[in-house]
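If you are new to this repository, start here. Below is one unmodified record pulled from the training split, so you can see the exact layout before writing a loader.
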Amino acid sequence: MSNQNLLKPYHKNINLKNRIVMAPMTRSRADNEAKVATDELQGLYYEQRASAGLIITEGSQVSKQAVGYINTPGIYSEAQVEGWKKVTKRVHDKGGTIFIQLWHVGRISHPDFHNGELPVSASAINPHAKSFTPEGFKETVTPKAMTIADIKQTVTDFKNAAANAVKAGFDGLEIHSSNGYLFQQFFNACSNTRTDEYGGSIENRSRFFFEVLDAIKTVIPQEKVGVRFNPSLHGMFGITIDEETIPTFEYIIEKLNDYNLAYVHLSEPFTDVSDVPFAVTNIAKHFRPLYKGTLMINNVSDKETGNKVLEDGDADLVAYGKLFISNPDLVARFENNLELAEWDQDTFYTQGEKGYTDYPNASK
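And here is the target side for that same chain:
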């Protein structure tokens, strides 16, 4: 089975031993006041999965304002940098490659995280979603529309987080511009009704993202930066598709050809959008002709689907999420056609090692 497309090395801006990527997944294990990734938990968790061609960490907030879920690790303080250093060392000692995902949730947050202050977004529009707070899930609120000064500060926050990622020993980073979080709140008209240079036209609604990307590439080489999008997200995180949604992502992704990125990471639809007007049902096939660099696809279901998307040339890398939770040795299981372990969804967002670092390898 070693001739599988998934198991072939990849060398284009990013050098990977195989094309199987561990997708970024929130796991809520930074259960400490400083929101630090620890050697004992995150270090072991990622080390166990270092056989992946690339690990992309859970989303890590770029500032205190960026948080919206309990116990997620940050990358804005010195203590957080020191914690991540231990994680990257463990992965590198096992021959792995690891990127950190930089995150700002925007309006998918709650005043409980901000000393009673409102979370921020492109516009003051409630997503009518749920925020996972220290007191459990709560309804989101109407956020504060970001001022120009807020936007400029957030650009700086991402730049500083990128510099911290370099200090922490990461091989690169991914900008989380997906899944209804802050950047997608600017992209989509349902969440952005601004009338300044950050609203209205597709170019304006994309401006903030490109300002962040341009700032980040001043502190880390472009070829160490990936970006993530979910173009056909619909009916989740307060996002709905309209006639400009897909053209917006077409504009962004075509413009990214002017950059020399590690990859563009796209998610297939999270829900059935076959009857949704203006949606794209096969993201890989739609966007592959538009992007000339490395394309990663997420939300494929199994080994066969992953190999097929590579064989068809619709993507270069395949990111797996839940399968990596319960199968730390997923690469070996694919290679040797071994049975896959089932995950325990009840422990996805709990604390401690249960359902996190206690899944066995197939050989044990």
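Two things worth knowing about this chain: The longest helix spans residues 148-167. The chain has one domain: 28-298.
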